[in-house]
Each structure stands twice: as C-alpha cells, then as structure tokens.
Specification:
9 strands, about 30% strand, rod-shaped
C-alpha cells in the first residue's frame, strides 16, 4: 500500500510539472501565432498595394493622349486601345475603399477588394489625393493599404511620366 501512494504522488508531481511547463509555453505560443498573423496580414497588404501600383503605373505610362491641365483628385482618365482596336477612355477611381477601373462601355471592375460587402483590406487615397500632376510633369500616385481589424498600414507612393507627355505626342520633333 505504501508503494502505491508514492507512485500516485510521483504521478501527481509529474502532472504538476507538465502543467507548469505548458503554462510557461502557452503565452510564447500565443505571441508566436499573433506574430505569424501580423506577418501574413502585412504580406497581403504589400501584395495588394504593389499589384495596384504596378497596374496603375503601366496603364498611365502607356496613356495614348497628353495631359491637359492639372490632374488632382481620386480619378484619372487615360486613353488606351479597346478590344475592338479603337481608342477608348478608361478611368481609375476610388469607391467605398476600393480601387476600381471603368473601361469604355463596360462593367466597372474592382482592382482591390471584392464586388460587394465590407473589406478587411481598405484602399485609401493619399493626402491630398490619389493622383496629382502638374501640366506636363509626372503623375504622382499616392495611397495607403489599411487593414481594418489590426490597424496596420502600408503606404505607397511613386510617380510616372506618360509616354505621350514624355515624347510630346503630336508635336513636331526637332
């Protein structure tokens, strides 16, 4: 009988030690999972922002008409070839924390986010606006990708000179 009590006591001590070890490791595992989730969210913000930036830069660079006046605001119109082979006006604009593209005579397409519903990843125009351009100068694109729940932000800013402005399309070359 005496031996059974010692074995039971040893078993309880082992259970206590395992429980104490688990209590010390549990916060570490929780912070590791939290860091993993923050890293995943930051990667998603960066990927979405870089895709939007790359897409806008490519389309604005290949704009088929020269800028007229000063561009400032959350909408940018550019000329490009349509599926039919003629030139049409496309528009980038911000609607409900999403970047969208409106093709000529077509359905509006979201470039960031989904068609409907609240978004975890918000596309916020930069300050003072998404697009800025002084006549004949580069188009400055500035925006922030924001995650609603974690409060994380990734800021993006670049500038691009449309080829039509750079080569002074429809002017005599000297």
């Amino acid at each position: 009988m005496r031996r059974k009590g010692v074995i039971l006591l040893d078993g309880l001590m082992a259970l206590f030690l395992i429980s104490a070890l688990a209590m010390m490791v549990l916060p570490l595992a929780g912070s590791w999972l939290s860091a993993l989730e923050r890293g995943r969210t930051g990667t998603k913000l960066s990927e979405t922002g870089l895709f939007a930036m790359d897409f806008m830069v490519e389309k604005i660079r290949n704009n088929r008409s020269r800028a007229v006046g000063v561009v400032r605001g959350n909408r940018y119109d550019y000329q490009a070839f349509t599926a039919g082979g003629d030139e049409g006006t496309y528009s980038f604009f911000v609607d409900r924390e999403k970047l969208k593209l409106q093709p000529p005579k077509g359905n509006i397409q979201p470039l960031t986010g989904e068609y409907t519903g609240p978004e975890a990843y918000a596309f916020l125009p930069g300050r003072p606006s998404l697009f800025r351009q002084v006549e004949g100068g580069p188009v400055i694109i500035s925006f922030t990708m924001h995650h609603q729940m974690m409060g994380m932000d990734r800021d993006f800013e670049t500038s691009v000179i449309p080829y039509a402005d750079f080569y002074k399309k429809k002017e005599v070359y000297e």
